[in-house]
Amino acid sequence: MAEKKRKLGKQIDTLEVGDYYTATRVIEDRDLLLYLGLTDDANPLYLQHDYASETPYQQPIVPVVMLFGMAASIVSMHLPGPGSHITRHEMSFPKPVYHYTEITFNLEIIAVDRDAHQATMSVIAYDNDGDEVVHGKLNVIPSYEPESISGRSLKNFF
User: Strand pairing partners for 103?
Assistant: First the structure.
């Protein structure tokens, strides 16, 4: 059987301090309903306008774990990309994010440890008012080059 080609993200030897990726996302009702349904989260602060209007937030807010998930998907899909894995995160959420807010995520490689096969990334996200809504750091293991199936299967014959 032929080996299927996989598109992998950047590997440790190609990552450099200063590599960055910027993405913009808009928080839609569909995204919130999918997240809340998947996690079985029934917090009224996330969906119930009547409850949220009685709080200091005045309107429903976006769960912070959902914001982290957006940053994680940028790591998985773009930088370093497919095959990468987050091993640690430190994040703060200085301002609540409301429904329909446009958020711009900026992820940047701030350190590369080739011996440990790990990169450290900063994550900063801003809302459409230019206010910081996410600030943090991620430790990421970028993709590994997979061994060739044929190369592994013939090791016993030489």
Answer: 25
Tens of pLDDT, residue by residue over 91-118, are 999 999 999 999 999 999 999 999 999 9
pLDDT at 7: 85
pTM: 0.84
In angstroms, the CA 135 to CA 133 distance is: 7
Domain boundaries, the chain: 12-27+64-143
What are the start-end ranges of the H helices in the chain?
29-39, 44-47, 49-52, 64-77, 149-153
Cβ 105 vs Cβ 25: under 8 Å? yes
At 35, give phi and psi (nearest 5°).
Answer: -60, -50
Of the options 3.10.129.10, 3.30.950.10, 3.10.450.50, 3.40.50.11260, the CATH number for the domain spanning 12-27+64-143: 3.10.129.10
SS3 81: coil
Distance from the Cα of residue 29 to its chain's centroid: 20
Q: Tell me the DSSP string of 39-76.
A: HT---HHHH-HHHHTTSTT-S-B--HHHHHHHHHHHHH
